[in-house]
Structures are given as C-alpha cells and as structure tokens.
Prior knowledge:
Elements: E1 3-8, H1 15-27, E2 30-36, H2 47-57, E3 64-69, H3 73-79, E4 84-89, H4 95-108, E5 113-118, H5 128-136, H6 147-170
Parallel strand pairs: 1-2, 1-4, 2-3, 4-5
Bound molecules: adenosine-5'-diphosphate.
Amino acid sequence: xxxxxxxxxxxxxxxxxxxxxTRAARLFDKVIIAVYDTPxxxxxxxxxxxxxxxxQSVVDLLNVEVQSYTGLTVDFAQRVRAETLVxxxxxxxxxxxxxxxxxxxxxxxxxxxxxCLMASLKYQFLSSSLLKEVARLGGNIGDLVPKPxxxxxxxxxxxxxxxxxxxxxxx
Length: 171
Ligand code: ADP
C-alpha cells in the first residue's frame, strides 16, 4: 500500500489545496493531509479549526484523512509509514523554497521521496494569506474555498471586527 503525506499550514484550506489532495488521492492508496500544529500566533484559525475545515472539505475523498503534527514533517511521515511527501507548486512563488526544503528533508530522511504537483492554472494565484486579506476587505471568496471554509471565514472576521471595535471603545 502506498501512503503519502500532504503537509502544510492550511490556514485555511483552499480549493488550490483541495485540487492537490484530489489529484494525489488518484496516485496513492492513502493520502494524509498533515496540518502543522505551529505555535505561530499570526494564524487566523486554531489547529482544531484548521483540521475540522480540512476534514469537512475532503469528506468525499475516501482515501484522504486529516491529522495534525508537530516537529519535523519527515518524522511524522515515518510515524505514519508514508514513503512520499506531496506538495503543490505555484509559478514563481513556491519553487525555490520547496527545493531548499526538499534537499533538507532528503538529508534528514533519505528514503522519503517528494512528489510536487503543479498547481492548476485557475489556482496559481491562490494562497491562504491572499484569501484572508481579500475576505478581510469584504471581497467575494466563495469560488476559491469549500463552503464550510467560506462560512468559517465570514464568522471569524465578524468576531475579530467585534473584538477590534470593543478594544477601540475601551481605549
Ligand atoms: P505551508 O506553510 O507549508 O506552505 P500552505 O498551507 O500554505 O502551507 O501550503 C501547503 C501546500 O499546498 C504547499 O505545498 C503549497 O505550495 C501548496 N499550495 C498552496 N496553495 C496552493 C494552490 N493554490 N494550488 C496548489 N498548491 C497550493
């Protein structure tokens, strides 16, 4: 059985991520979307929220599951007996960083292979950070993310607006 790990921050998962997961699911018996549990305070969604949104987005992909991890990606891959890492590559944005990471991972875990899937044309310019920025400014992001993510983004931004205006009133 072939198992691949598709690691990332997924803050939140987008249709670009989903496209990569769907295509990887055709190549491997099992794909684990590995949500990185990072202490980075700048993330919009908690680890539980990022996992839940990813899970809701892949319910139709029967050989795809979602797990969280901390520490090195290659260690997680070893723990779940995955022999391959999957990443998505967008024009310009990703190549150098992915190359650097791949060489380091190869050094850490020589048996772990990397498969990069080219991002589909319509998702080339889609990133979680740009998505959050557009959502914050009130832009329509409905066709860029699965429905649960669009709903969660809307709710999260309402909460953060209320918190910000509460802070202003108290100052
Ligand atoms: P990371 O912080 O590890 O880059 P991301 O959640 O931003 O986490 O991305 C996870 C993976 O998905 C990376 O390989 C990234 O290149 C890929 N990815 C992100 N956005 C897209 C997209 N629009 N199309 C295809 N792949 C993407």
